[in-house]
Amino acid sequence: MSKKRIEWIDVAKAVGIVAVVFGHAMTRHGTMFHFLYWWHMPIFFIMGGFFLKPIVNNNWIGFFKKRILPLLISYLICGGFLILLSHFIRGESWSYTIFYFARLLYGGRTLNHYLSVFWYINVYLLALVFTSIVITYVKNREAQIIVAFASLIIATSYKHIYFLSFKYVPWDFDVAFIAMFFMLFGYLYFHKIQQFVKDLWVIVPAAMLTVWLFWMQHMDRFNFAFFLKSKIIHASYHHIPISRVSYITFIPIIVCLVVFSASYYFCKFMPQFLIKPVQLLGQQTLGIMYLHKAVIDIIDEAGYNGAIMETILAVLISFILSLGYGYAKRKIKNSRIRRSIS
């Protein structure tokens, strides 16, 4: 494990992916369900902006080879595997399965069942490209902030659009502009976030505010729903509709700061034998993101329903499979290197 890695970021990724799995395992859509959806996807887009850099000398080919192509390959490999797995386990017809491969290419909201979370990779890849374009060609920091807010305002100004005669936009293209807001936030304020996570004068009020927001949601004093994939966003206070943009720019970021700080203090005070497994879990979030929905669905079809146990099993099984996939990929890569040398 590289010493250059920032431990609390890996831990925050682990917290985020467990929240994602728990949200998908829950059958009761109450306060906790809504609370998880406030932040468990934005936190990955925010962290996705932490280490972004402007493209030097317009080397977009290098950027695509390093940042885009590996994710795209994993998307197609894992997607194809899960489509075939779904065919045999769910007893789907070959015509349905073959057409699903076309849906995998179209992406976004057309993906369901085992692949229902694959929209995230579509949006993440698009947000990476959009954000990199902004930070490369828009040099002024204030202008970058304006672009971030403009993309959020425009993307949330309507509920739904059609693409040609199709109901859904390819790759949830319009959702990527909401994701770009969070990614730009992570890029612009990473150094501030590193300071805030240690500052109890910031984090304690933020944590108290998070608890208060949770309680107000539970008591139905206000209602905030934030579902990125389907772009279902609504906000009201005492049942009076209010600006959705103000809630999106405020609540997810506040909760994410609390999660970042909790992760930081976990790494500061806990022994390494507890930190390392959680950190390793955080380094396998992509594999868990791909696989956990299939594991949950298979457990459900087996007749077992229990959100906590499903979450534990889905995280562990997906984690082990992700490690196995990474090990096999490294073995193949090393074998090719040895053959090329010899």
TrEMBL record:
Record-annotated Acyltransferase domain positions: 7-323
One of the record's GO molecular function terms: acyltransferase activity, transferring groups other than amino-acyl groups
UniProt cross-references to PANTHER family, sorted A to Z: MEMBRANE-BOUND ACYLTRANSFERASE YKRP-RELATED (PTHR37312)
The keyword Disulfide bond appears for this protein: no
Keyword Transmembrane among UniProt keywords: yes
Pfam families per the UniProt record, alphabetical: Acyl_transf_3
Keyword field: Acyltransferase, Membrane, Transferase, Transmembrane, Transmembrane helix
Organism superkingdom: Bacteria
Transmembrane regions listed in the UniProt entry: 7-25, 37-56, 68-89, 117-138, 145-162, 168-188, 200-218, 245-266, 273-292, 304-328
Identification of the protein by name: Acyltransferase
